[in-house]
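agent> Task received from the user: take the single chain below, predict its 3D structure, and emit structure tokens. No templates, no multimer pairing.
agent> Plan: (1) validate residues, (2) run structure prediction, (3) serialize to tokens, (4) report one or two observations.
agent> Step 1 OK, no nonstandard residues flagged.
tool_call: predict_structure(input=
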Amino acid sequence: MTVRVTIKALVSLPLVIALSVPAGMAQAPDEPDPNAVQLTLAECINRALENNLALRIVKLDPAVARQFVTFQDATFDPVLGASASYGESDSTASTTLDGTPLPDSDNTSDSLSADASLSQALKFGASYEVGVGYADDKSTGVNFDPDTGFLVRSTDESEALRPFLTFNLPLLKGFGTEVNTLALVQAENDVKISDETLKRNADVIMKGVLDAYWDVAASRAAVRVSKQSLKLAQDLFELNKKKVEVGTLAPIEITQAEAGVASREEGVIVAENLLRDTEDQLRRLLAVPPDDPLWDKPIIPADKPSSEPTAIDLDAAIATALAERAEVLNARLDLETSKLSARVAHKNVRHRLDLQVGVNAQFRDAPSSTTLLNVAGQPTTTADFQTDAFPNWTVGLVYAYPFGNRAAKANAAVAKINEERAQINLEIAEQDVRVDVRTAARAVESGAKRVAAAHSNTILQQKTVDAELKKFENGMSTSFEVLRIQTDLSDAQVAEIRAVLDYNKALADLERAKGTLLASKGLSVGTNGGK
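)
tool_result: status=success, residues=531
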């Protein structure tokens, strides 16, 4: 009689013990494990978002995309240019006149030049360059003038300052902010796409962590159920031994009970191995370092799964998904970029007509002198010269148009096709998201029904076991039937565990389908260089 009570007590253990024991009671009396580590779902998610290796790689992409924005914007940075040079020359020559030797003549010159300028391309298409040049030239020389028969000594000094300004403005092709900032806008949109892609990957990683966390919880609960089933089989085996000893039961019942114990032992081994596999999957998603002690410590999920039915507003869920899902947002950005590219390509079909303006001045101080020398090299006549400053400016138009303009027209046609392709891709993304949300919503609804059905099945299987035990005690059943029905109960308990945890996975998957999985946990992901 004592054994019968023990069997019923074990068989009647509520499933809630397997699924949602308090944190302090997570270890069953038959499963002491002082080295086990309890982890909350929030702790696992935070560790994954911070350390997951795949996510750390994706976190680098927005930083790279932002550097491309800087690169494209740098096209419009002003450019400072400067140069300087200095040179000297010296030559000596002897000349003769009617066979009469003349003194050697020295010709020397030196020059210094320098300039500085500031140039910039403007976002509406114009460009300018403003600067100033400086030159200092000095030269002296003696040369024979065959027309006069005299030697001529000349001295030239020139110091000039030349400010200048050039301005170019496209009037047709190449004019406008859209045309000249296309690459910059594309880079900015790529940043937004990269951010959304990071968010999508974070959602995927987070969903994986949620699934792995509940898989560990399910596997651990399955281990407890399998051990309970083993204990029932062992109790039945001990009871049968006693009944055989007193002659109230056939010896074959001992063999059947012993086979049941062996089968349950195999079930415990399989369940424990599955638990270790699911724990490793969770450790992988958490990017646990190789030397972390967590690799050798069992993981006990501290959070309790929810089994309460959840009401779903399908239309609101779809609207949220269309506003939040990265795939839709990125498709919209791609369409926006394609439309801009098509407009720019259409504008670039126009003729080339540029307005060019140039202004420069020269402020020059250039005294010079010329001296006539006699045959002996003595001066006879001297003349001095001086130059004045003068400004000048130019205004002009430059026109160009290739015959047929086929390259620009082909580019515009391709851009229009790409715009149409982007529009179709957006519609596909919206359709996929709509179906994804509907599928996830149905999974939640069916999951809630599955939990209720599994719970009912567990209760019915419990009653069946109780009834079969009474029949066995009265000699109206066999060990084989008791073991079979106990197995059905264990299977029902495991199925209920799986149904509850699959329901929690479905709830998380609905948030993922809506694009709000991170927000639902009050989390966000940053682009801090992969850390």
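agent> Step 4: summary for the user.
The first helix runs from residue 2 to 11.
agent> Done.
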